[in-house]
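Summary for the lay section of the report: proteins are chains of building blocks that fold into shapes. Here we show the chain for Leucyl aminopeptidase family protein and then a coded description of the shape we predicted for it.
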Amino acid sequence: MTDFAKLLGPDRGQLARTLHVVHPDDWTTWLAGQPPRVRTIVAAQKLAGKAGDKAILPGDAAEDWSALLVCNDAPDSPWRIASQGSVLPEGTYRLAGGEPGAAMLGWVLGQHRFTRYRKSDDAQGPRMLLTGEPGRIDEIARVAHAVATVRDLVDTPAADLGPEELEQAVRTLGDAHGATITVTKGRELETGYPMIHAVGQAAAKGREPRLIELEWGNPAHPRIAIVGKGVVFDSGGLDIKPAAGMRLMKKDMGGAAHALALAGLVLQAKLPVRLHLLIPAVENAIAGNAFRPGDVLASRKGLSVENTNTDAEGRLVLGDALTKAGESDPELILDFATLTGAARVALGPDLPPTFSDDEALIADLLAAAAAEHDPLWRMPLWSGYDDMLKSDIADMVNAPDSGFAGAITAALFLRRFVPKGVAWAHMDVFAWRPAAKAARPKGGDAYGLRASWRMLKDRYGR
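The coded shape description reads as follows.
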C-alpha cells in the first residue's frame, strides 16, 4: 500500500513549487495582484475564476512555475486540494498563504491506487506537500491508511476475499500489536452462535462461517467493542437476488472493513481503551443445506427468530456478534454494516443513517462528523415500529413483510441484542462510491470512519 507519510514533509523553507488556492469570491482581487505574465496566461486559457479552474502559471524563469486551483471548498475541508495531488507533476509543493491543514488527507489519498489486478495508470513519482505542522503527518498518514484499507478490502472480489482472508487480515493486525485473536469456526458455531452458523452453513469448504475476535489493551481501561458485518458475498440465499442486485455484493463485507480499519487506528495510536473487535464472517451462499425462509433460528441471546427473508442475513450475524460483545460489559459498542437498501433509498450513498438512543453518544458522533467533513445522519430508533418485528411462532422476525421503514426496523432488530444501558450506535454504511470525486475513486470507500475515530479520540485520548 502507498506510504502516505512520504507524501507529506516538514516545511523547512526548502525549494518547492507554490500552489495557489483561490476562492471564486476572491478571484478578481487575486488576479489583480498578479504580474502581467500570469494575467496573460489566465486570459489565454479563458479562466473565469469558477470552482475547478486550474492552470500552470509561469515564473521569472522557464523552470520557475507554480500551480493554480480555484476552489470553493471550506479551508478546513480535507478535499480542498484533493484534485491536485494526482494531477500535478511529481515534485514538492507548498500551499501559498497558509497551512494545508486537513487538506493533507485529500492530497495523499489522491495518490492511492488499487493495483492488485492491474498496474497503476500513474507513471509519475510522488508529489510531496510541505507543512509547518509536522506533528500532524503521522496522524494524517494513519487515517489515510485506514481509508485505503477499507477501499482495498471492499474492491477485492469475493473469490479472493472470503471468511478465511478476513480472518487473516485480523490476525495480521493483531500480530503487529500484540493482540489476542480468537476464532470460532464452522460447526463450533452451532451452539454458541447459531445465527452466524445458519447464514454461513451453505458456503463451500474452505469458506466456512466464523466469528473473528480481537482483544487488546489494558483491562483496567474503558472497554469498547467494534462490530462489523462480514458477509463476503451475498447471493441473497434462497431468496436470491436478481443479477443487478448481486453485482456489487462483494462489498457486503464493507462493515467488517470499516470495523477493522477503525480498530487499526485504535491500535496504532495506542488509545487507552480495552478494545474488542468482532467480525462475523460468512458467505450467504445457496446449496442444499442453505437456511430457508420460514426456518426458526435460535440465537446466542436466547431469542428465537423466524427467518422471513434469507436476504436479511446481515442483521442475523450481527445479532449473535452484538450479544457476544455485550457479555463483557463494554461501556460503548459501535457497529458498521452494509445492512439495508432502504438506507440508500432514504439518504443515498453519501449519508450513513446512524442510529443510537444514547443522546451523549449521538451528539459526539455528529459533532465529530461535522468537524471531519465525514457526514453522518441521525435516524430514529422509533419504538413504535417494534411491532413490525412480531412473529406468530417465534420471538421475532428478521424482516417485516410490509417493507416500510426498512432501515429503522433493521436497527430495531439489532437493538434487541444490545444490553440495556450500554451506549451503542449503528451505522448503515454503503461502503461504495458510485461515481468518482477528487481523491475518491469509484469503488469501495469509507463512510463515517473518520467521524468515529474523531469521536473515540475525543472521548478516550490522553
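Put simply, here is one thing we learned. The chain has a mean pLDDT of 96.
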